[in-house]
Design a protein that fits this description.
Methionyl-tRNA Fmet Formyltransferase, Chain A, domain 2; seven-stranded mixed beta sheet; seven-stranded antiparallel beta sheet; Rossmann fold; about 325 residues; alpha/beta; 2 domains
Length: about 325
């Protein structure tokens, strides 16, 4: 009978543990997480001698990492001699590391996937045991794509455990590490929108950072208005515009149409300021624009430039020369 130690968090890891516990020919030796249940192992201890000793006492044959950001030390991996597996919610070797699903959306990738691989001391670099691919939908957000990838990773891990329990062996295909990319948490924290990008790239940046109803683990797309910072959650195409990138090309009950770098505008259809969703009145207060709507600007119009913070904050011109309101607290 094959025994397994599951390391990981949340529903996916708990589901995998339950599946192994109910699997003929398999035994769940233990589950390590940041909030272990009675008899479980504290995940942080796996990097210490006492945690490694606890794993040795459980004597599992296999380790499976599922929805975990822990980098396991060589001293722990050595206990398993090539029998430690990681269920990575992303295709390898192209999308290793953290928040890879968000980067895939930002890159305009048309498909994504999941990979089960042998764990080595280098992150996400070991031989591939199983992999799957699926299309990225136009309406995928950072959250929906992560959930789909995590579900695929859990499926691959459960199928591999069942194969082991039946006495089978697992394939091991070395990765082409010349194509390897590793994404780091600190590289995914800047949520400032760059309106000089094409409209499609801005829209992808916005949806990649959208984790509603939860908070994104990395960034939420943001723009700077005269009245404070606005978290941008959803956009929609708004047609061509002659306005400069970062300008408000039009404003009505559906939200502001923002000019992008390719001459296309994006309508901000869902946004939040100081923890509250914005309606037309809220937008007008933030933009210093009382009164009714305006036509989309053509040549010679006085569209309001709203530049991202990375371009130096708000630039005022034309009808937008109003005293900015007090900066609202970030977040929410």
């Amino acid at each position: 009978m094959a025994s397994f130690l599951v390391v990981g968090e949340g529903f996916a890891a708990a589901q995998l543990s339950r599946a192994i516990a109910a699997m003929p020919g398999a035994r769940l030796a233990g589950h390590a997480s940041t909030q272990p249940s009675e008899g479980g192992i504290e995940a942080a201890s796996l990097a210490r001698a006492d945690g490694i000793a606890a794993v040795r006492a459980l004597a599992p044959d296999w380790l499976v990492s599922m929805n975990s950001t822990l980098v396991l030390p060589a001293a722990l991996l050595d206990l398993f001699d090539g029998r430690a597996l990681n269920a990575h919610p992303g295709p390898l070797p192209e999308y290793g590391g953290l928040h890879a699903h968000q980067w895939a959306i930002r890159h305009g990738a048309r498909d994504f996937g999941a990979t089960l691989h042998v764990m080595e001391t280098r992150v996400d670099a070991g031989p591939i045991v199983a992999a799957s691919r699926f299309p990225i939908r136009d309406d995928d957000t950072g959250l929906t794509l992560f959930r789909r990838a995590l579900g695929e990773a859990a499926r691959l891990a459960a199928e591999a455990a069942a194969r082991i329990a039946e006495g089978g062996t697992l394939p091991r295909m070395p990765q082409d590490l010349s194509r390897r990319r590793i994404f780091r948490h600190r590289d995914a924290l800047d949520g400032r929108i760059d309106w000089t990008l094409p409209a499609r790239a801005v829209a992808d940046f916005v949806r990649a950072g959208n984790y509603e109803p939860f908070r994104s683990p990395s960034y939420v797309a943001a723009m700077q208005a005269p009245g404070g910072e606005v978290e941008v959650l959803r956009t929609a195409p708004a047609g061509r515009t002659d306005a400069a990138p970062g300008a408000v090309a039009a404003l009505d009950e559906a939200g502001p149409a923002m000019a992008c770098g390719d001459g296309q505008a994006l309508r901000v259809t869902r946004a939040r300021h100081a923890g509250r969703l914005l309606d037309e009145a809220g937008w007008r207060r933030l933009l210093g624009r009382p009164g009714g709507g305006r036509r989309p600007p053509g040549p010679g119009s006085d569209a309001c430039p709203i530049l991202s913070a990375r371009h130096g904050g708000v630039a005022e011109s034309g009808a937008c020369r109003t005293a900015p309101t007090e900066q609202a607290p970030k977040g929410g």
